[in-house]
Amino acid sequence: MGRIQLVNTVITGFLDYSFNMYKWFVSLLKQVEQWCGNFIWIGDILKKGITTINWATICSPIENEGLKIINLHHENNAHLLNLAWNFAYNNKSWSFLLKVKVLKSKYEFRKVYRSSSLWYEIKQFYATILNYTSWTVGTGTFINFWNDKWCSSTSLANIAGLSDGASILDTASQFWTDRDWNIPLF
Predict the structure, then answer these.
(1) Pairs from 122-126 (Cβ < 8 Å, separation ≥ 24)
(2) β-strands 103-105, 176-177 pairing
(3) What is the four-CA torsion angle of 172, 176, 180, 183, rounded to 10 degrees?
(4) CA-to-CA distance for 103 and 88, rounded, in angstroms?
(5) Distance between CA 83 and CA 42 in Å, rounded?
(6) Which of 55, 144, 47, 130 has its CA nearest to residue 88?
(7) Distance between CA atoms of 39 and 50, rounded to whole angstroms?
(8) Gap between the Cα atoms of 77 and 125, Å rounded
(9) Which residues pair with 180 in a beta bridge?
């Protein structure tokens, strides 16, 4: 159990920093996983031994006969999804500056922008974050009335067939007055 604990804490701890900003190549992750397997079974990352258990089983929970080793592919993707979430929904200075640089609107990228290694990684997960996010309306001041998916699994702009006709700045609170909806007809 000591080697397993070392792999789960020390090795993945070293990788956490770069996982927070970069998508690792699959070949590199496989190499690190091979070294981890060699270390667990033999005690030396450079000595290759014969294992009878595949890596997916080793990464599964103990109750499923695994060793609960952290799956580096999943860990890398989870960190980058978190980065994309923070970019999309946090108002920290780094995300604000990057949004100004690369987004025309919440749902549209600029065609030309200066290259950013951070944006390159976020862009791969940004659509996933937007597609699987739902809203609780509350006062409606942070909900884009037309483009956010706040009342169904698709936006009102898509339901109504609006492409560029709806103002990107309309919030849900602008159409709610005295306990009633006040939606203008086009």
Answers:
(1) 122/80, 122/83, 122/84, 122/87, 122/98, 124/23, 124/80, 124/84, 125/77, 125/80, 125/81, 125/83, 125/84, 126/84, 126/87, 126/88
(2) unpaired
(3) -70
(4) 11
(5) 36
(6) 130
(7) 12
(8) 9
(9) 177
pLDDT of residue 115: 76
Measured CA to CA, the distance from residue 35 to residue 31 in angstroms comes to: 6
Output DSSP code: residue 181. E
d(CA 80, CA 96) in angstroms, rounded, equals 18
Helices then strands, each counted (H, E), the chain: 8, 4
What tokens were used for 179?
A: 């306990």
Mean pLDDT, the chain, integer: 84
Three-class secondary structure of residue 14 per DSSP: helix
13-50: per-residue pLDDT in tens? 888 888 988 899 999 999 999 898 888 888 888 888 77
In the chain, where the domains are located: 2-73, 77-131, 134-186
| Residues 145, 155 contacting (CB under 8 angstroms) | no
Q: State the DSSP H helix or E strand holding residue 105, giving kind and residue range, or none if neither.
A: strand 103-105
